[in-house]
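Review form for a predicted model. The reviewer records the input and the model, then writes brief findings.
Reviewer: anonymous (R2)
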Amino acid sequence: CGAGEAGRALRSVIPGLHVTGIESDRAAAGRAREHLDVLLEGDAPQELSALLAEGARFDAFLFADVLEHLEDPIGALAKARALAEAGATLAASVPNVGHVSLVRDLMLGRFDPSPAGLEDEGHLRWFSRSFLSDALGEAGWTVIAIEPVPGAPAPAAETFRDWLSAWPEADSESLSTYQWIAVARAMESPNP
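Model under review:
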């Protein structure tokens, strides 16, 4: 949940909303405690398992730039599904592995991990639109929508995009998408 800002914003527009957050970074967790009803400090998959053991139930889930940092993102989504009330909603954002900056660099034989961004050194998994959709479905969620977020233009990408325009199979939407935002509902009969 980071520093709890998303939870705080939601509580400001939905009075009485009960928000539980999970955060592994000690400093961010300390700030989040000020804004949330419950803060679980630790690893998301382990905390989701603990919530399952307690019999907790939730009507909404937010995985904001989390799934790419997990060893088993499908397992975490399945745990969330097991915690979900009937008709629960899940929103998730993930960086797009098909963004022009990554595709171009890979074609040039480069991949330079950095402290943040698409090549974040903390990313353990990489998502395309189709993989995000498949992961949600496999974990027991029905995809309602997956929308692109363009982000800032990639430096010096126009020449590469012009070159790719001769390739009709190139996915121009994916090339210009920095991040995918998915919204899903809990399946009535999950089969994770």
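Findings: The longest helix spans residues 44-54.
Further findings: DSSP finds eight helices and six strands in the chain.
Recommendation: see findings above.
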